[in-house]
Amino acid sequence: MAETSFTSCGLYFYPWNTGKHKGLTCSYLWFAGVSCLIRPTAAILWLPLYLYHLWREKDCICMLGKTLFIGCIILSILLCCDRYFYGEWVLTPYNFFLFNWSNDIGAFYGQHNFLWYFFSGFPVVLGIHLLPFLMGFSLPYLRHFYLLIFWMILVLRSKFIKGAKINLQLSHILKKNSNVLFLMPCHSTPYYSYIHQNVSMKFLSCEPNFNNVDDYMEEADIFFDNPEFWLFQNYEKNDILIIPSHIVMFDTLFPQISRFLDKYNYSLCYQTFHSHFPESKTGQYVLIYCR
Question: Any stretches that span the bilayer, and where are they (predicted)?
Fold first, then answer.
């Protein structure tokens, strides 16, 4: 979400008209540049706005010079940060291009035709905002009233539906030497973001096929093909891995691994609501089993 914050700041400073932000017409480029370095796809938003600004600008050469100056400074800071954290000179935007465009590794997670964005992507994302958008223009005096109603609905939903509390609850029941195993589809929880303890945790990985292995399957798919076999194979027949003290999973998985849970004396220590309409490999409830 960092690039979203920088994009919001950049849009605020963008010269939507010539009178506003006089003398600061290029200030938005700092935020635009940072947002594009954090997430290169942010250029899809900024490129048309920049070209429109360039077309309106009287002194295009001066603006191009400022753009080059700002770009060099931001890129230099990025290189220094990457050098410090990676221990070698690395250009992360180049790696992004290499993996996602040149090697097309992103195709591992699925692909859509370019027209999909116009016929499915944009209508789905923007369609739900159309009604509040029209209401905001047609009922300016009632705008704050409707915002209050919407916020009350969100607050009440967060209060009575506990789907977002799974990691917070887990952080309370964990002990110092806990070992947590997440038997869920990749990135189903915020993981360490809400667990501020030094505990061992593992989730089913889903990295792409970096080494171009034939008939490659990610760990999550291998697990869900035969959950019970995967557990016994990885924990009962493996002297290196320690039997986890806590297992986090969706309720639909319980019948498939109940024998493993019984054998190692797991008991249900927490259950919380997840979704009214669960998708594949998820469930209506999230369960935490403890030893």
Answer: 28-49, 61-79, 114-135, 141-160
Note every long-range contact of 66-71, with CB atoms under 8 Å and residues 24 or more positions apart, other chains counting: 66/26, 66/29, 67/26, 67/29, 70/26, 70/29, 70/30, 70/33, 71/29, 71/33
Instruction: Find all residues with CB under 8 Å of 12, minimum gap 6, and list them.
Output: 28
CA angle (93 as vertex; 186, 66 as ends), nearest 5? 140
Per-residue pLDDT tens over the stretch 37-66: 888 888 888 999 999 998 888 888 888 999
How far, in whole angstroms, is CA 49 from its chain's centroid? Answer: 25
Residues forming beta bridges with residue 246, ordered by sequence position = 180, 290
Amino acid present at 165: K
Under the banding of pLDDT at 50, 70 and 90, the label for residue 182 is: very high
Angle separating helix axes 28-38 and 60-86, nearest 10 degrees: 40
Q: What is the pLDDT of residues 231-288, one digit of tens each?
A: 999 988 776 678 999 999 999 999 999 999 999 999 999 888 888 888 888 899 999 9
- 18-21-25-31 Cα dihedral, nearest 10 degrees: -140
CA pair distance 60, 73, nearest whole angstrom? 20
DSSP alpha helix (H) spans, the chain:
2-13, 28-38, 43-56, 60-86, 92-97, 116, 122-138, 143-160, 166-173, 219-225, 227-231, 254-263
Q: What is the pTM of this model?
A: 0.66
